[in-house]
């Protein structure tokens, strides 16, 4: 039977891909520092604490489900990226991973720039006081309204994604009597996922202008002719959750090849190159992400070497980490509602959230870890699947996890590494209310995005 033909949909339990679980961990109470944020520990009562506050208190005060974000950890990661790349490079935080006004202020204070890819993200950034010249505007189909607002606001760069957009942005800027700094996003035929990458001549996807067939060179030709825009560089983003730097190596080689062509044809050396984001984080103990300083060193060396070989001045490099900054800084706290052992299979543990607060498991077969955090337990490990409360059998938060055999309703579970692409992709499916994001730091917790209410839902439903 084909997967997609299953009446319950491709994610029905009996056609799920094989799990990747290995043997149960030796100590279920241990918290692997790789997957938990910096200030997370267990106190003497066995309760997990973050920023000096225990999760039982947090659950009481803020309810569950909720995302708890370790502010010191966020700032430390942002600073580590900034420091690693130094003064000759720029770090743009990819706002789509998670954006709120508090986050914008932290980024501003830590000296990072910001990528946005919609009018909503731009509005959030501007309303929190991010200087427009430190904002880059992305997207494969920006509306003319969005482009106009970005140009008027004075964003530092717009990343052009198509031939139509080259003309569109140039026209709008000219109408406004402005000259907009732009980069052109190209696709270099490198597809990178986690531990592998594929280098091809073509890339079959919606983003960017293909290097193949001279399309990128033609885009540059057109951009250089238009008065409304100033072409400052070439942009390439090759994938997500990447651990292996060799994909960047091939991408940089191809981007620098284009820079050389541009110099030879137009006598212009473009001053910037953006290598995108996509650096991986640890979702489970099996993942081994690189440190920002290793990534900075590797990327800088690759670009410098390629430029020397092409006899080009080394352009200013920029990178766009999203997940690698915010991903590890937050966990989702859930309360267990039901525990359902299925003989010979596994135990289904239902929590009070699910695919509405974390769609990544259903969408990408993403793997997560999970721990009992309201107490420690010496009970035997049991193979579990942590599922949500939605009307979908694919509503899975953690596909395979070992949890203590005495797990019971009312226990609190936490899923680490949910800072990126969880709240930002959250939905109202089943009219479930989206959870709050609570920042915790130095013994204090404050809501930075409040919990949705039924009034919020009904306000949109005008009857
Ligand atoms: C999504 C995206 C990023 C960020 O990706 P991460 O995996 O979160 O680092 C950066 N740049 C562009 C253009 C993107 O689309």
UniProtKB/TrEMBL annotation:
Enzyme Commission code(s) on record: 4.1.1.20
UniProt: substrate binding residues: 323, 360, 364, 392, 421
Binding site for pyridoxal 5'-phosphate: 278, 320-323, 421
UniProt KW keywords: Amino-acid biosynthesis, Decarboxylase, Lyase, Lysine biosynthesis, Pyridoxal phosphate
Keyword Amino-acid biosynthesis included in the entry's annotation: yes
Cofactor: pyridoxal 5'-phosphate
Domain Orn/DAP/Arg decarboxylase 2 N-terminal: 72-327
Pfam families cross-referenced by the UniProt entry: Orn_Arg_deC_N (PF02784), Orn_DAP_Arg_deC (PF00278)
Disordered: region residues: 1-28
Catalytic reactions of this protein: meso-2,6-diaminopimelate + H(+) = L-lysine + CO2
Domain of life assignment: Bacteria
Function, in words: Specifically catalyzes the decarboxylation of meso-diaminopimelate (meso-DAP) to L-lysine.
Protein name (record): Diaminopimelate decarboxylase
Source species of the chain: Streptomyces toyocaensis
């Amino acid at each position: 039977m084909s997967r997609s033909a299953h009446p319950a949909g491709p994610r029905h339990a009996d056609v799920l891909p094989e799990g990747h679980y290995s043997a149960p961990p030796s100590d279920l109470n241990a918290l692997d520092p790789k997957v938990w944020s910096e200030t997370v520990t267990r106190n003497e009562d066995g309760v997990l604490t973050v920023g000096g506050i225990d999760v039982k208190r947090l659950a009481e005060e803020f309810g569950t489900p909720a995302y708890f974000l370790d502010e010191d950890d966020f700032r430390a990661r942002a600073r580590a990226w900034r420091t690693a790349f130094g003064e000759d490079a720029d770090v743009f935080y990819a706002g789509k991973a998670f954006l709120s006004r508090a986050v914008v202020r932290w980024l501003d204070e830590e000296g990072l720039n910001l990528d946005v890819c919609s009018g909503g993200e731009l509005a959030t950034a501007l309303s929190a006081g991010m200087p427009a010249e430190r904002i880059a505007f992305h997207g494969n189909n920006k509306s003319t309204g969005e482009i106009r607002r970005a140009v008027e606001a004075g964003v530092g760069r717009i990343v052009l994604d198509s031939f139509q957009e080259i003309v569109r942005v140039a026209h709008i800027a000219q109408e406004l009597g402005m000259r907009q700094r732009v980069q052109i996003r190209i696709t270099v035929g490198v597809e990178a996922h986690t531990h592998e990458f594929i280098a091809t001549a073509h890339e079959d996807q919606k983003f960017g202008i293909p290097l193949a067939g001279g399309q990128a060179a033609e885009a540059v030709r057109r951009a250089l002719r238009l008065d409304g825009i100033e072409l400052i560089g070439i942009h390439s983003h090759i994938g997500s959750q990447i651990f292996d730097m060799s994909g960047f190596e091939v991408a940089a080689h191809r981007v620098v090849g284009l820079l050389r062509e541009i110099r030879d044809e137009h006598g212009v050396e473009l001053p910037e190159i953006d290598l995108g984001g996509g650096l991986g984080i640890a979702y489970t103990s099996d993942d081994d992400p690189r440190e920002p300083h290793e990534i900075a060193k590797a990327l800088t060396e690759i670009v410098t070497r390629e430029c020397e070989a092409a006899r080009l001045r080394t352009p200013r490099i920029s990178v766009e980490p999203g997940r690698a900054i915010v991903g590890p800084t937050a966990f989702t706290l859930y309360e267990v509602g039901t525990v359902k052992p299925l003989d010979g299979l596994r135990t289904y543990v239902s929590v009070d959230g699910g695919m509405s607060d974390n769609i990544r498991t259903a969408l990408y077969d993403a793997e997560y870890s999970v721990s009992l955090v309201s107490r420690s337990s010496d009970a035997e490990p049991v193979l579990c699947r942590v599922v949500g409360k939605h009307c979908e059998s694919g509503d899975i938060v953690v596909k395979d996890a070992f949890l203590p055999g005495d797990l019971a309703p009312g226990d609190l579970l936490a899923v680490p590494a949910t800072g990126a692409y969880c709240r930002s992709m959250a939905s109202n499916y089943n009219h479930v209310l989206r959870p709050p994001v609570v920042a915790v730091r130095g013994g204090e917790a404050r809501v930075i995005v409040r919990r949705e209410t039924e009034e919020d839902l009904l306000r949109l439903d005008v009857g």
